[in-house]
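User: I'm writing a short methods note and want a consistent example. For DUF1707 domain-containing protein, I'll paste the sequence; you return only the structure tokens, no commentary, since I'll be parsing the reply automatically.
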Amino acid sequence: MPASELRASELRASDADRDRIADILREALAEGRLTAEEHSERVEGVLGARTVGELEVFIKDLPAAHARRAAPLYTPAPSRPTGGPAEPDDTAVAVFSSAVRKGRWRPGRRVHAYAIFGSVEIDLSEALFEYQQVVIKAFAVFGSVEVRVPENVSLRGTGGGVLGSFEVESLDAEDAAAPVIYVDGWAVLGSVEGRPRRGRLVTDILDRVHAKVEKHLRKHL
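Assistant:
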């Protein structure tokens, strides 16, 4: 089943999801809805849960869970990017070598990565996103392309492997304005991998855009 067709309950749970459920359980304990033993058992279950649906089981009999269901947990991002340039803004090429893009860099709307008997690392965990949609075209031939993203963005993958592996972990950000990263491409006797870097969070893209606009206005005024 394509990642875009997954129900919210089937999505992988993040640390933020577990913290949200733990907060509800803590409130229920304080209100006397749960005994200390029940609270301890449920918290232990929350720590071991892998999907959002598994987490919801621990609060389904509590009023706070039903009150929050009025708003969806996730706003699914489109399965494919909308618009954007056909030519790359940045290209990383590794032929019998390695190439790295990481730190406080500014990815464009389209990044191409080619690993031929080499390795390419594209780390967006500290990137400054100027665009909400970023497309990474990755091609690995006897090499590897590794993409890392903050855990509170949306991540989509479309591609495959020929005697190789193409693995992109699907993510859905709760914030509809969060960046969306699309990893497309092929791995031929190589590997393409995309997944979040736990503990890394991107700040609100709208706040950054507003700050940039205000700075531009102050400069011209």
